[in-house]
Amino acid sequence: MGIYGITVFLSAFLLFLVQPLLAKYILPWFGGGPGVWTTSLLFFQVVLTAGYGWAHLAARRFPPRAQALATWILLALSLAFLPLAPSRSGLAADIATPTLDILRVLLVSVGATYFLLSATSPMLQAWHSRIRPGVEPYRLYTLANLGSLTAIAGYPLVVEPNLRLGNQTLIWSLLYVAFGALSAACAWRLWKSSPHAVAGASPGAAALTPLPGSSTPSVPGSPIPSVPGSPTPSIPGSPTPSIAGSPMPAMVEGTSESPTARDWWPWLLLPGLSSVMLLATTNQLCLDAAAIPLLWLLPMGVYLLSFILCFHSERWYSRAVFGPGLAVALAGICVILYRDVYVPLPIQIAAYTLTLFVCSMVCHGELVRLRPAPRHLTSFYLMISAGGAMGGVFVNLLAPRLFRGYWEFHLGLGAVALVALAFLFRSRAGQGRGLPVRAVAALWFLGLTTALGLHISRGLEDAVEVKRNFFGVLKVYGDDRGDPGERHRTLMHGRIVHGYQYDHEEKRYWPVSYYGPASGIGVAVMNHPRRLDPEQRSLRIGVIGLGTGTIATYGEEGDYFRFYEINPEVTRFAQKHFTYLEDTPARTEIVPGDARISMERELREGREGAFDLLVLDAFSSDAVPVHLLTRECYEIYRRHLDEDGILAVHTSSRYFNLNPVLRSLGRIHEEEGTKVLLVEDPGSGLQETDPTSWVLLTSNREFLSNRDVLRAVTPWGEGDDRPLMFTDDYSNLFRLLK
Predict the structure, then answer these.
(1) Phi-psi region for residue 661, left (φ > 0), alpha (ψ -120 to 50) or beta?
(2) Which terminus of the chain has a lower count of CB atoms within 10 Å, N or C?
(3) Which long-range contacts (CB under 8 A, 24 or more apart) does 505-513 make?
(4) pLDDT at 236 over 70
(5) Which residues of 363-397 are buried (b: 16+ CB within 10 A; e: fewer)?
(6) CA-to-CA distance for 390 and 385, rounded, in angstroms?
């Protein structure tokens, strides 16, 4: 394969490597949520479709030398966008709906290079078949798969832990230059050989090639598979190939007739459904964990694996195996959905990943069975690409406007089940087994859709208001049953309670839930030396994360509270459904936008917070956004704190133990007297508070010697002292799993 093999491997590697690299690069700019990754995937899917469309057009309409010339021109233009360096220039600090901003940043930074990578790879396959018609090209497919899987496995395991982001972008840029040189050399070979190798060939001859190893349309950057049963086109001297591992020579199952609309809709529907399942599963995995590359790439790797298996050989997909497997997987995932947060995170990850794999195998296995004759394969791949992009558009742009929850996952499960039933009923096996099989399958589908529908409706019970936007799903529940003194409203983000307030006139002023007097925030406020000094008394408090605004109950006359809140709906909910901000005698201010970006801007403008207490309570469902726990961000906090200020970090989490990271941050300035204290509160039914955990970092000697503070301190647990420093370039939440 020589230069073609190296170029195809490198193109697939670069296509997959740049996706998590750029998504992680821009993650802190847009709040650190899973929406950043799924929106990035939408961009890559759309650009990939555009690139493949260009390759399809060029192969059919341009003569070989025109294709080579176009490739050289596009390569030269793309080099102007190197080195890879995303810019935050022009971004507003308070981005309420970042989708379009993410797409714009990606388009400017990588649009040209990604488009050319997407387009060049399939054209290389056609060139190889044209120049060397007697050589089987299917090994290129294997090399492309190897390049894609190397990037998927290598980024979270090798690249991310060992290379700074700046070095990652530089190395990617250098590798792209190498790819450009190799592609230019391939184009030169085409230029030189075209008068001889394709004498008498029409401009579109290369378009007949199955294009094994080029970019799979529905997975950004994945290899286009060689379709089992589809031989290479009739190029002089070309034998009918055998697919590696196939028990018999490849045979043509499609007809030579042009595809009709009846053929096209399943080519769009099946990859569209698998794309919906990929993105919806990623959202589910990151719902209570965090938006980190490992949780992004695991679903993508499983999704790609299903493509590789199904398009490599038909023996990998059997309705007799994956039909019952789908029934079991969907029943199991319904159990996971109903058990909710009480399922351990590793089991959730395994269950969602397995379900995605089975659903993808069904979609892609049935897709292979519908392949056309080889002369229509480029149209087939283009439709697959368009279907994948349509799935991305649905999840990222339409679903947030149509649904009040992440219900595209439920819809995707039901749609895949329906498609599986439709193909079963149309098959000879389904027809031969008669009524009993159909009845059982129909009853199973009815039970599945009922379970999914009830799960959605259960999530809306007692809901006063539900709102979904880029940052997640917010719900306010009202509990008006039982004792009037116990009536309260609860705010939930995702599946985690983020605070509540009682309606009773006395209890409405209480610091309930995670913020009681015995919690870390209560200890820090009530025992701050300024609060204990009658002549000073007033405090300046910064709070990252508004929630219901419960912390404002500690406010007194003369106090100042500055809340940083990225989600505009949280601000609206706190002001509409809760009265903490209205009731406090302290002066309050809400700064919209990402806290870190806002605080950096304030420092540039010379407006340090001079906070006596800075509270980090910015949870996204059950996880603190990782970019708010890094060493670089910690230094920003310190610059906003008064000399004797206290940093209070809310660490209550069902899945993660954040103590090692915070103790490592505290050691940075240990020589200056900084101490790290753990305050755990078991909660109190009498005070209506919940079990909670806080970590306090300060060098305030008076506070550290206070007896009430010392009594509140909890001994560190086993493993809390292990060094683990998060930076903007490296973070690994899985090392913090409980």
Answers:
(1) alpha
(2) C
(3) 507/688, 508/579, 508/583, 509/553, 509/583, 510/553, 510/687, 510/688, 511/550, 511/551, 511/553, 511/554, 511/689, 512/550, 512/687, 512/688, 512/689, 513/550, 513/688, 513/689, 513/690
(4) no
(5) bbbbbbbebbbbbbbbbbbbbbbbbbbbbbbbbbe
(6) 9
pLDDT exceeds 60 at position 213: no
Q: Measured in whole angstroms, how far is the alpha carbon of residue 88 from the centre of its chain?
A: 20
Rounded Cα gap, residues 60 and 203, in angstroms: 6
Whole-model pTM: value is 0.84
Peptide bond before residue 374 is cis, with ω within 30 degrees of 0: no
Ramachandran assignment for 489, one of left (phi > 0), alpha (psi -120 to 50 degrees), beta (any other): beta
CA 422 – CA 295 distance, rounded (Å): 32
CA end-to-end span of the chain, whole Å? 48
Domains and CATH numbers, the chain: 1-215 (1.20.1250), 260-461 (1.20.1250), 514-717+724-736 (3.40.50.150)
pLDDT in tens, 717-726: 988 989 999 9
Residue 715: its pLDDT value, please?
95
Cα 11 from Cα 180, distance rounded (Å): 9
- The candidate with the shortest Cα–Cα distance to 658, out of 676, 641, 671, is 676
* Tens-place pLDDT, residues 589-603: 999 988 998 999 999
How confident is the model at residue 61, as a pLDDT?
85
pLDDT tens digits, one per residue of 557-588: 999 999 999 999 999 999 999 999 999 999 99
Contact 616, 581 (CB under 8 A): no
- Is the CA virtual torsion 531, 537, 542, 548 positive or negative? positive
Residue 242's pLDDT is what? 27
Type and span of the H or E element at 492? strand 488-493
412's CB contacts (< 8 A; 6+ apart) are 273, 276, 277, 280, 359
Q: What is the pLDDT of residue 135?
A: 59
Structure tokens at 228: 């089992």
Any idea what the Cα angle at residue 356 is, between residues 353 and 358, rounded to 5°? Answer: 110
Average pLDDT, whole number, for the chain? 84
Q: How far apart are CA 626 and CA 21, in angstroms?
A: 16
Helix (H) or strand (E) run with residue 497 in it: strand 496-502
| Short-list 113, 108, 122, CA closest to 7 | 122
Return the closest-CA partner of residue 221 out of 392, 44, 35.
44
Residues forming a β-bridge with 513? 689
Handedness of CA 245, 246, 250, 253 (dihedral sign): negative
Contacts of 491 (CB under 8 A, 6+ apart): 474, 475, 476, 497, 498, 499, 500, 547, 548, 573, 574, 577, 578
Q: How many CA atoms lie within 13 A of 416 on its CB side?
A: 31
Residues near 153 by beta carbon (within 8 Å), at least 6 away in sequence: 297, 301
- What pLDDT shows up at residue 681? 94
Tokens of 591: 């700064």
Report which DSSP code applies to 12: H
Q: How confident is the model at residue 93 (pLDDT cuts 50, 70, 90)?
A: low
DSSP of 540-579: EEEEE--TT-GGGGG--TT-EEEEEES-HHHHHHHHHH--
Strands (E), 579-718: 587-592, 611-616, 641-650, 675-681, 692-698
What is d(CA 120, CA 78) in angstroms, rounded to the nearest whole number? 12
Q: How far apart, in whole angstroms, are the C-alpha atoms of residue 297 and residue 317? A: 23
Nearest-angstrom CA–CA distance, 624 and 726:
13
Cα separation of 530 and 105, whole Å?
Answer: 45
How many CA atoms are closer than 13 Å to the CA of 246, on its beta-carbon side? 21
CA dist 117 and 564 (Å) reads: 40
